[in-house]
Amino acid sequence: MIESRVLLTAFRGSSAEQLIKYANGFDTLVLPNDKIKDSEKLIKKIAYSTYDYVFSFGQKPNIKNKVYIETNARSKESIVATAFDCERLQDLFESNDIKSKISHNAGTSYCNCLYYNGLSYIQNNHLKTRMIFIHIPFFENINDTDCFFTKVINIVSKI
Questions:
Q1: Domain-embedded: residue 1
Q2: How many CA atoms lie within 13 A of 91 on its CB side?
Q3: Which of 77, 116, 141, 149 is geometrically suited to a Cys-Cys bond with 137, CB 3.0 to 4.6 A?
Q4: 152: part of which helix (H) or strand (E)?
Q5: Across residues 94-121, what is the average pLDDT?
Q6: Where are the alpha helices (DSSP H) in 8-144?
């Protein structure tokens, strides 16, 4: 069996940053919360390494013990969709007792910008990399962060 090369990204100071600290054996990238620099850092990392998968994590208000799997990102009138198998990922979350929702709206700010630029770079350069953006709850909306984070990282390792 060939092991997949996986990159996990998260924004500094977020619950997502704490999540990727559970990721032993994966490449990780903590982003500085700057729309331009975030995308530049991600693209540089993708350009100089070969990844099978990029999992980008952000936090979403008003969700509790649940994840949102984002199918696409937008910039003005342009929409770019992921080639990631979102239904398979949702099945993995559900079978590991994490509620999930497939969402078609990555937001209007940092998360969407990073996702749009990452997906566009992958598609424009004909890379085989599959990128997905997953929103997780804020700390206070996770009942047991240790259990939740461990399950999420275990799911990532099954891809």
A1: no
A2: 6
A3: 141
A4: helix 145-157
A5: 95
A6: 15-20, 35-48, 86-95, 110-124
Dist CA 95 CA 155 (whole Å)? 10
What does the pLDDT read at residue 3?
57
Can you give 1-35 as a three-state secondary structure string?
A: CCCCCEEEEEECCCHHHHHHCCCCCCEEEEECCCH
Q: Which domain, by its residues, includes 60? A: 6-157
Q: Using CA atoms, how far apart are residues 16 and 71, in angstroms rounded to an integer? A: 18
CA–CA separation, 142 and 2 (whole Å)? 34
| The pLDDT of residue 4 | 67
Mean pLDDT within 38-53: 96
Q: Reduced to 3 states, what is the DSSP secondary structure of residue 83?
A: coil
CB 135 within 8 A of CB 67: yes
* CATH number for 51: 3.40.630.20
Q: What's the distance, CA 142 to chain centroid?
A: 18
Per-residue tokens: 83:
């080639």
